[in-house]
Amino acid sequence: MRKAITAIVALITVISTLCIITLPSAKAETQEEILNEGEYYYFEFWLESDEQLSYSINVVSGPNVDVFLMDYTEFAKYDAGDDFLVFVDGSADDVQSFDYCLTGEGTYYLVIDNTDAGVAYPPDDFINDQVIFEFTYEKDISDEASLLFDLAVILIIIIVIVVIVVLLLHKRKKDKMRNQGSIVPPPPYQAPAQPQPIQPAFKFCNNCGAQLAVDSAFCPKCGGKQ
Q: What is the pTM of this model?
């Protein structure tokens, strides 16, 4: 039983370790890019239903930029110079810095624009208004998925603990029954046997006192009836 409990405890340790290893760990990455006047830079990324992407854009030098978040269809329109639509929550106009946390399954295009396609456009000063910006992004599982993952780990640990408790109670009950079965009950009480009276081997004559056999009816000496 002790070996079984040790094995279960080891199993809990292994499960917890695997959960920690399996849980995706967020790692932020930063890259610096240069945009000449009239250029744009885009990032394409895919999110699963349980993932989220946190990103930030920071202009190190140069004029303000526009940040557009869109799907493939709208990006194709933007690239062709046509009218396009953006995801408002993940986009920003005429900014030096911007950050956002995106959730939802799909393919996305994030555009940093140094053209006149949006609100912010390079100054009309006949020089190359270059933009240097930093793009930092961090892909991680969503808060909801993380919560479900944590609950699943806790549930597994609770189940294992319940199994240990049940095994311990079963062992205790089994040991108690074994101990009760090994006790030999005392023998039933028996009263001591009563001593039997000792029958005499001879008797004496009632008349003359001669020694006679026990079963004699008459005295052979005096003839007296016994």
A: 0.55
